[in-house]
Predict the 3D structure of the following.
Amino acid sequence: MSKPSKRRPPSGQAAAINPASPPDPKAPDEVAPLSAGKRRVFTLLAVLLPFLLLAGAEGVLRLAGYGKDYPLMVDGPPGYRMVNRDVAGRYFYHNENLPTPLFDFVQTEKAPNAYRIVVLGESSAAGFPFYYGAAFSRQLQDRLQQTFPDRKIEVLNTAMAAISSYALRDFVPDVLALKPDAVLIYAGHNEYYGALGVGSSESIGRSPTLVNLYLKLQRFRLVQALRGLLAKVAGIGQSTPTEGTLMERMVGEQRIGFGGDLYKAGERQLEANLSAILSAMEKAHVPVLIGTLASNERGMPPFIASGSEAFAAKVQAAEARVETDPAAAKTALKALVDEDSLDAHAHFAFGRALLALDDSAQARMAFLAAKDRDELRFRAPESFNGILRKLAVEHGATVVESQQALETASPHGIIGPEMMTEHLHPTPRGYFLIADAFYDAMRAKGMIGDWSRAVPKDSAYARMALTRVDSLVGTYRLLQLRSGWPFQPIGQNKRLTDTLRARTPEQAIALRLFRNEIDWQTANDQARSLYEQQGRYDEALRAARAAIAEMPYSPTPYVYAANALMLARQYDAAVPYLEVSISRQPSTQAEGLLGSILLQAGDRANAIVHLQRAVALDGTNAQALYNLAGAYAMERRFAEAKPLLDRVLTQQPGRADARSLLAQIEPFLR
């Protein structure tokens, strides 16, 4: 028998396997291939694993209490929601002392007869520097409530200083959740230096798409943690600016040339964000009214011009002749404008010369050209109003010509210091005219209902709930603003408010409020009491109405208003305020005052009802006891009057009117 061959197989050729041979214990086990289903599961897990890890990290951070939520609306007093005072935390990362919105409220459950308006905007929409009764939203709310007394008019103002259209766009889901009947917009001045604006110290880029994506993601704690880490790394060796005004701290790019890349980026930013806002409102069938932007054209020289020092000297020399020889100045300045059409100071001086020659139309064009070429862009260029008008047409919104309203009321038809406190914040009169423009636009469209009770313009202006104290505090804020850059050279602060001294009790209250030594409610109460003592009942009523606008949920300010009217002997006018106060929460004071008015008017039956309620609420209130006793006496219910008078005299033995009334009724008790 021949032996088996020991030859190896040729290279690349497998050796034959003898099925009868035992398995090699050193050979590896064969792995069965994965089924298609298992492959899909493993692939899915591989894809999901990073997201699961991120979700786990997000959960851990939330459980640890890291980061914050910044909702637009938070719970307020029972039955009300209010604008979150910390909502600006969404947009500011490098600045302290963040801006805050007004204290504005809406009912948690929207009433069936409610008409709810939401205002979107910046510091001008919030009423800076006066706030409170000066804000156009508060003036509009009061006037609309008078026009539609059977409706519950709610105007919620979300505006605040130093934000841009990014914030307004970010608010949209929160605003729609409020089920508004209309949205009003007055915004656009902050597109360059407002939070996230292209020239802002808070900017994170020029792409509206990327910035808006970031705003959606920054609600996650992981993104907040990453943002904090990057801020620390970027801030190594640097100090965060805490001095100076918010206006000064927000500037990242001091020079933004007319028509340049940053200038155009600001235009694109406004158009993208405003288009998204209007599109969302259009889809939700919410009417939008958008106001054109106004600023100080005639009374505010440009902050920064583009020309050289030598060119600036030539402009200054030509401008010096405006008062003495305006025709020669006009000729010289026209030549300088032609020489450098981008220099803002040349256009402004040219406007002054034209105005001196009574050429108002051309002067206005020159002043607008100067504003547009001001390289420090705190005032919106005119192209922004063009964007507003174009987008309003595209999305069915209503343009409110607020700029035109201020121009019409200004000398020469050019907006100046009569309407503006500085570069762009209106005076109280200016704020009223903006409110009036929105009111007229709503009336023209027939919004809300029957306008047969429309309030005349002069009557509405007389009712403005801006107190003298709030007006003074606004003046102090303006002094503070003008103390630093850009109104003063960089690095200089005149500290104009340090030398303020109060010469009247009213000024003393205002200074304490300005210096944060007292809060607004305390200041307003002190002012109202002062006005009552001085017999200035109209000012006391104004202060009470300002408190009503600030705290619509509280019954107390309505009593203050009624009391001021009663001191002025306007008893009938006091009744509605007392009725509203009682509807908020019955009180001895409100029931007692209403009972007294009805008693004086001869309505004894209803007077007794309210006086009885006053005593039931507080059986120790001597005045309520006395008034009810008097009402009983008039109705010859002497037996019921006597024990009430006894209780009064137990508390106040020397009270002469109670003793006199008791002596008068005693003969009828025998």
